[in-house]
Write a structure and sequence with these properties.
This protein is α+β, with helices and mostly antiparallel strands. It has a single domain (about 25-145), classed as Aspartate Aminotransferase, domain 1, CATH 3.90.1150.200. Helix content is about 30%, strand content about 25%. It has helices spanning about 5-15, 40-50, 50-65, 135-145, and strands spanning about 35, 70-75, 80-85, 90-95, 100-105, 115, 125-130. Helix 2 packs antiparallel against helix 3 and helix 3 packs across helix 4 (about 135-145). The longest helix is centred in the middle third of the chain and has 16 residues, at about 50-65. The relative contact order is 0.14.
């Protein structure tokens, strides 16, 4: 048995995390997902979103893809990003303890402007809380508008 196998077995016996226990949740319940490009890493992130946030993550992904069928996806910094190939990223979301934060990188150019301010001059946020209805038409409109603006290159 290799040193790594012994270490994994020892952690499992002692009640520590198992090698196959899935993604770790970071502070606020945000899933820790390796950086990756394409739909796969984004679906891994959404699958690991805890509790009520999982269903909302699925819905956000569906609405984004429906609004912009040619969207590109990636996970960077434990956050799903959506953009257009060669044009940069226009929206992302991230789990916090009490809400999901949706980031519009050129949010000050959207109509209406998303409600939450950022330290970055063009970025605006939209927070989604448990048991709160998502205005899907407004969200889809923001996504369509954002996809037509210059993307953020990260």
């Amino acid at each position: 048995m290799s040193h790594r196998e012994k270490s994994t077995e020892k952690r499992a016996v002692n009640g520590g995390p198992k090698a196959d226990s899935g993604p770790r949740l970071l502070a606020g319940g945000n899933p820790q997902i390796p950086k990756g490009y394409g739909d796969g890493p984004v679906q891994d992130y959404i699958a690991a979103m805890p509790g009520w946030k999982h269903e909302v993550g699925e819905r956000l992904d569906e609405l984004i893809v429906r609004a912009v069928p040619e969207v590109s996806k990636a996970v960077k910094w434990n956050t799903p990003f959506y953009g257009l190939e060669g044009e940069g990223w226009f929206v992302a979301f991230h789990c916090f303890t009490r809400y999901i934060k949706v980031t519009f990188f050129r949010g000050t150019s959207l109509e209406p402007v998303p409600p939450e301010e950022s330290k970055l001059p063009e970025t605006r946020y939209f927070h989604i809380y448990e048991n709160e209805d998502l205005d899907e038409d407004r969200f889809a409109s923001w996504v369509r508008q954002a996809s037509n603006l210059p993307g953020e290159r990260l």
